[in-house]
Structures are given as C-alpha cells and as structure tokens.
Design brief:
There is one protein chain. By secondary structure, the protein is of the alpha/beta class. The chain has one domain: 3-Layer(aba) Sandwich (Alkaline Phosphatase, subunit A), CATH 3.40.720. The protein has helices at about 10-35, 65-75, 90-95, 125-130, 185-205, 225-250, 290, and strands at about 40-50, 75-80, 135-140, 155-160, 175, 180, 210-220, 255-260, 295-300. The chain has a 9-stranded mixed beta sheet with strand order 2-9-8-1-7-3-4-5-6, sandwiched between helices. A hairpin with a 2-residue loop joins strand 5 and strand 6. The protein is globular. It starts with 7 loop residues before the first helix and ends in a 9-residue tail after the last strand.
C-alpha cells in the first residue's frame, strides 16, 4: 500500500471544508423546505467557545458530566468527524458565510485579522431577506464597527460583544444593538435569557426566526481544571435551559438546532493537569486533530432520526 503524507496546508484546507460544506447543506435544505410549501422552520445555531472534542462526557470524559449536551447529541445526528478552523475568528467567518475563512478576509482572531469583508453574504442576510427574524447573542468576533458588526451583516437583534473576550464573565459589559449596557450575573445565563426573550417576541408574532447563540463558555474560564469544569457545567446547564424553553413554548418540533464549537480546547503548554481531549493530539491553534475536531450535532424532532 502506498500513501502520501499531506502537507499541513493541504490538511488545513480539507478541515475547513467540513464547516463550509455543512453550512451550505443545512441552508439549502431550509430553503428547499420553504419553497416546497412545507413551511419555514425556525433555525437555532448554538456555538460554544473553545469546547474540545473531549470536553463532553459522551466522548469519554470521566471528569465531568454534561447530561444536556449528551442528550442533544443522541436526539439527532452526530457529526463524528466534524472539523473547524484552529481558532475562533476564521471558524466564525466560515460558519456565517459557508466560505473558506481566508476568502472572507479573516486570518486570525484579534489585532484586526478577525474583520470579515463587509461585502460577504451571511446566512443571516439570506434568511432575513426571506422573512425570518434574525438574532445574534454572544460572541461575534468578526469586526466591531459598521459595516462589519452583526447589525450590518443580517441580524435584526444583537446582544453580546464583538471582540475576542468580554471584559469579565460576571456582570459583563455588553452591547444591545449599538448601545452598551451593564449586564447582571453570569454571562452564559444572561445570553440564554436574552435569546429566549427574542424567541418569545417572534413566537407571539408567529414569525420564523434564526437564533445564533454564540456562548463565550468555556473560553471565558481561567486555564485551570476547576475553572474549566465550572464553565463546562454552566454551559451544559444553560443549553439544557434553552432547549427546555423551546419545548415549553411548543416550538421544538418546528426548530432545527445545530450545536458546534469553534475550535479545540485552549490549554496551557506542559500543564501539570492536562485537559482531557479524548487522546487527540493538539489543541486550540493547532492543525492537529485536537485543535480542529469539534463536537457537532444537528437535531430536528420528527425529521432527523435520533442517534443517526
């Protein structure tokens, strides 16, 4: 048997294709349903920050329990070999546009390298034009000023922050539209509450919605096991609260939920207590599998079979 070792750049390009292909397939299916007369499903995209493949108990982590994320994984389709970019800015640009990140102008996650070309067409712009109400909650990381901000890229509603990290995980200063405000309490909980408030408004008006819920957890944690585990537990609990909110509003059956992470876990080199990543090599910032293979599940009750 003969095989060729691939150049790292080639490997990196193939990984980024996973995210782009998934975006194209998902939204092609959504528009196909709308045009067929079946109706316009609600769309929820939940993006975790720096959540590694091994951060879930369903992937073999014995140090933490993630019952809500595990249940979400088994309730729909698990994308077992899903890959993102090694860092958040490029992954988010690829997710928003369905294009390779470098084609959108995004080469990194800060220092101006995270600014996406203003002329890029995002999935939010497409759904907005087609009649969906669009909301973005949490971490943007693809440009702070007009015309790079969420409101210029297809989102009717924005509550969150545009930089790489918030000023703090408790009582963070956030943006509501173009106005800054002081939030109260845990950031992850705040984002869940804001997203559910947006959904309430659309449910009352019977408007299909796109909810892009980009949590900052567990990336807001200090890089020690206790803090990381606390953030993971909070993320799991809040995803569970959000999904329960869909059920209680009786809209879960008409809502597509896609959960994923932007890259692998952020770890300290040579840490005494290394973060479990299912024995994958590498972490955030690396093109090795541990840096780019991320959890990804797509769920739609009655349409996507459980455990598929």
């Amino acid at each position: 048997m003969h095989f060729r070792l691939r150049h790292p750049a080639d490997f990196h390009r193939s990984l980024r294709a996973d995210l782009s292909i998934a975006v194209v397939l998902l939204f092609s299916a959504i528009f196909g349903l709308a045009e067929s007369g079946i109706g316009k499903p609600n769309v929820v995209i939940i993006l975790a920050d720096d959540l590694g493949w091994g951060d879930l108990s369903i992937h073999g982590n014995r140090e933490i329990s993630t019952p809500h994320l595990d249940a979400l994984a088994t309730s729909g389709m698990r994308l077992e070999r899903f890959h993102a970019s090694p860092t958040g800015g490029p992954s988010r640009a690829g997710l928003l546009t369905g294009r390779y990140a470098y084609r959108t102008g995004v080469a990194g996650s800060d220092g101006g390298e995270e600014f996406m070309h203003a002329h890029e067409v995002t999935f939010a712009e497409i759904l907005q034009t087609a009649g969906w109400a669009t909301g973005c909650f949490g971490k943007w990381q693809n440009g702070a000023n007009w015309p790079h901000c969420p409101q210029a890229q297809g989102f009717d509603t924005f509550v969150g922050f545009c930089g790489e990290t918030p000023d703090r995980a408790i009582n963070a200063r956030l943006m509501r539209g173009h106005e800054e405000f002081q939030s109260s309490g845990d950031l992850t909980e705040t984002l869940t509450t804001e997203a559910l408030r947006f959904i309430d408004d659309q449910t009352k008006s019977e408007t299909p919605f796109l909810c892009y819920l980009a949590y900052a957890a567990p990336g807001t944690a200090e890089l020690d096991p206790v803090a990381v585990h606390a953030e993971l537990e909070t993320l799991d609990r809040e995803v569970g609260r959000f999904l329960a909110g869909l059920e209680s509003r009786e809209i879960a059956d008409n809502t597509i939920v896609w959960f994923l992470s932007d890259n692998g876990p952020n770890v300290l080199p040579n840490a005494k207590e290394p973060r479990f990543n299912a024995y994958l090599r590498g972490a955030k910032g690396s093109v090795h599998e541990g840096g780019v293979r991320v959890p990804s599940f797509v769920c739609w009750p009655g349409n996507i079979p459980p455990q598929s």
